[in-house]
Design brief:
The structure is a single chain. It contains 10 helices and 15 strands. The chain is of the alpha+beta class. The longest helix has 19 residues. The two termini are 36 Å apart.
Length: 416
């Protein structure tokens, strides 16, 4: 956890706004991977579970101690009730709109935790569809995978931290935001079931929304970020939108039916809009959770995902690059953007095209450039089309792994 990298909402009558929380982003995705229950009905969340969730949302900022007994209703729900319905009705909380989403990943939970919380790996690596770049403001001094490995029944471990994040552009309006979040991780084992509960809450109002672009299919994880305030969607360029508040509680554990699979249950709330008005509806939040799940599942289920040591070596390599190396590495990406600026329906607009043709990454921060290179590395690693060709000189660690796995060379962009 030494380095972490940064991180929608459709029309409301005549208006449309992207309102993204830490993990809430609206995007289209197939349902086959994410079918969680045969019965597509919804049911009201039990009152004691709602009370547990409200307590956790408060605890992430008050740092009040959390006991196993207080978590029992939530854990009982996750392990026994959650899979019985595809959706659960979540009450609004602190004026924010809530939603539920549960799904399974065909990968063991210990593997997922080892990747997501490996010291030295940025969290954005595994959430490329929702998180652009981020960094720890207060870094936890704890090895999460090691704690998980040694959990004993009845134990509970609390890990606090604070992150700065910037998210990806909304698929509908193109807006993107940055914000600080308080984080609390609870690792516990009860009645033979180990669970990792992740709680986050935005510390303050986000930055004003800026104009970004989803390039092609959102499932390809290709985005462009301008430095201009407003929303990209026609007619909404004037809007000063914000995420006023967002918070979430997620529970990761082994599947109750197959230990080789993982169960991920998500509760998310968002209050966002402009002029102080919350524009968020439940379906927006739920669809955003699905966008989050799509990229995590795609990476964790890939048979081509490099081992942790290889990815750590890659991250260390990128973080050690000077500006000259970063610019040389990103030159093919710049050329791809400039080509797209003549073809993409949004990037070809004069306001975008003029910037892209001159110097499209001039306003990108050091962290944003590093995150971009790492994301392209991950895409190429699992066989996705990549906008960036990574040379053997700059990425010998990938080339060595590629040869060992007998993988084909880097893919060309699907947008060519």
């Amino acid at each position: 956890m030494k380095h972490t990298l940064f991180g929608q909402f459709p029309p409301l009558r005549f208006f449309s706004i992207v309102l993204l929380g830490l993990t809430v982003f609206l995007g289209h995705m197939g349902t086959s991977t994410f079918t969680y229950a045969e019965h597509q009905s919804s049911s009201k969340l039990p009152a004691d579970v709602s009370q547990s969730l409200a307590m956790l949302v408060d605890a992430v900022q008050t740092k009040q101690p959390v006991g196993v007994d207080e978590l029992s209703p939530l854990l009982h729900f996750v392990h026994n009730m959650a899979p019985t319905h595809a959706d659960w009705e979540i009450e609004n909380l602190h004026g924010a709109t809530g939603a539920y989403f549960g799904y399974e990943i065909s990968s063991p939970v210990e593997k997922i935790i080892a990747y997501l919380y490996q010291p030295g790996l940025p969290s954005s690596l595994f959430h490329p569809s929702v998180v652009r770049v981020g960094a720890w403001e207060e870094e936890p001094q704890t090895n999460i995978p090691l704690i998980w490995k040694n959990l004993q029944d009845g134990e509970i471990h609390a890990v606090y931290g604070m992150e700065r994040e910037e998210n990806t552009p909304d698929t509908n309006t193109g807006g993107y935001y940055s914000y600080n979040t308080d984080r609390l991780l609870l690792l516990l084992r009860q009645d033979g079931n180990s669970s990792l509960i992740s709680i986050s809450r935005q510390t303050d109002q986000s930055s004003v929304g800026r104009k970004g672009v989803v390039l092609g299919d959102d499932a390809d994880w290709n985005y462009y970020y301008s430095n201009e305030e407003g929303l990209t969607k026609s007619g909404l360029g004037w809007v000063n939108s914000y995420i006023f508040d967002s918070f979430s509680v997620t529970v990761l554990s082994a599947s109750q039916t197959d230990p080789a699979r993982s169960q991920h249950v998500m509760f998310k709330w968002v209050r966002a809009g402009w002029s102080g008005i919350n524009m968020v509806r439940t379906e927006h939040v739920r669809n955003g959770c699905m966008r989050f799940a799509q990229s995590l599942t795609k990476l964790m289920e890939s048979q081509r995902l490099p081992d942790i040591q290889t990815i750590v070596a890659m991250a260390d390599h990128v973080l050690s690059m000077d500006q000259a190396d970063l610019e040389a590495t990103l030159e093919p990406y710049v050329q791809a953007l400039q080509k797209l600026s003549a073809e993409d329906p949004i990037l070809s607009r004069p306001s975008f095209r003029n910037v892209v043709q001159e110097n499209p990454l001039a306003h990108y921060s050091l962290e944003a450039k590093q995150s971009l290179i790492m994301k392209e590395y991950m895409k190429a690693s699992i066989g996705m089309p990549a906008l960036l060709t990574l040379s053997e000189k700059l990425f010998p660690v990938f080339v060595a792994w590629q040869e060992e796995m007998n993988n084909p060379p880097f893919y060309q962009s699907s947008l060519d």
